[in-house]
Sequence to fold (594 residues):
Amino acid sequence: MDYKALGMKAGLEIHQQLNSGTKLFCRCPVGKSESFNIELHRKMNPVQSELGEEDPAALFEYFRNRTFVYKADTNTSCLVEMDENPPLPVSEKALHTALQISKMLGCSLVDEVYFMRKAVIDGSAVSGFQRTGLIATNGSIETSFGTVKIETVNLEEDSAPAVGKGAITEYRLDRLGIPLVEIATDASMRTPDQVKEVAEKIGTLLRATDVVRGIGSIRQDVNVSIERGNRVELKGYQELASIPELVENEVKRQLALVEIKDELQKRGFSPIGYDNKDVTQLFKSTKCNFVKKAIDNHQKVFGLKIPKFSGLLARQCGDRTFGKELSAYPASHGLGIIHSDEDLDKYSLSLDFANLRKELHAEDQDLVLIMAGSRPEKAIKALIDRINYCAVGVPPETRVADGIGSRYARPLPGAGRLYPESDVPAIKVTHSMREIAVPKTLEERKDDFKELPDDMKDQIIRSVYYAPTMVLKQYGERLAANLFLSNYKEVSRKGFDVSKIKHEDLHILLKSVSSGSIPQNKITDILIELCSGAELNKILEKYSLVSDDKLEHIVKSVIHDNPGKSDSALIGIVMSKAKADGRCVSELIKKFRR
Ligand SMILES: [Zn+2]
Fold:
């Protein structure tokens, strides 16, 4: 695809959890809960936002009239997350890391950090807002295709993740309030691969600071548009590798919508009203099981004619048909559609649809569809609004990644969704905060190791064990790197908890190995014994080798006492008398036999 000709533009918003020990505005730990002992229910009511603007995202959610259920575990959430207590002072550790990240991105720090409330009406915060503070602006990152501008760095609270979807939506509070940095770039990326490169670069930079690692700890949102399309926000990418494919799919989707717009213009389509017809009677004796079931459950079947739309819903729109793409809009109100561009035989609906066409006076160029439910007004309105937008082009909206594509989630939030958080005092960015030391980048860390092969270097600089390796490399770079990259891994794989190993024991262990009194191939066994609670000096006693002088003496006497025996036989005899390194014994035998 010729992305330049299509005028593709993309920008990134990266959200990274900070390893700050506690949440941003309470002292609950940063961690995951397995079970939840409290449940609370909330119903959102939309208000004119405090800036006096109507927020379309807020109204949209209001019309969905949902009740939100929150699952809480008192070990990972308190009254602050439940919006029953005011926030505590900001986590200093989180602020420290956010300042470091801003400096590493070459941003200018603000004079004072003001926390704001950002309206989130989807239920992912009990309070209906997320606290966010602008830390820095105007930075940059170098890439293979030029400089990408970092527009803003914000320090904010993570949201509560949903655990289910439907009329009632459940959220868990363990993640709510975990500190996040949000890094927003300009829209200077012109190809899907460039988007991936920037995400990768920023991710690598973040990994040099104190951040949470693992699945879900970093999330990328991508804004994509093409010249004839519109800005669409794609949420929920967690895998860097899939970014190019997902961006490419979005470009294809927007392109398909532009083609549909052109086609509709050719066909002379004009926007339609919300008219629909109760056609329940027509489907009374349908052979289609799920339509029959709906009618048996006292639901009604509504029919809709869309003039000049025939064939369009069978078209490909990115990774799915346009029919499937459209169905996401009524689906956001809980209803599905069946339309005449589908294989109706499959649903045993061909005959019913022939009658439906007659009933709705549909012509060949018209599409007809049905929807079943008790109160389908909102779903029908959402569908018709979307259908009418086809004549305009690509709707600006927020979408969530699903598979290699994405599906409609909600309209883009309005500009008026920020208002001041009066419970959190402004934080003055002092001189010492400006002079904060920044950690080495991964690139700079590479220079810390002179003796390691490149693959080991790459692993250790990204590892959580980078800092201890730096301390222990005085006993040998390879020895220290291997300890964490290989021995620790083996010990963990065998089910032992390496976090039980004391740092000072590692010093003594590596010192003994580097001086030759403990064989390197015993390190894993020794670590396992340490994990099991044994004392280091007792373990070392068990594994330590005889001194060089003593070993020489034993080798000489064995050679003397066993004339005519082979080297390997002599090695066996020496090893049975003394704990020693086999290779060392073999060398000594060769040396003294001459
Ligand atoms: Zn809390």
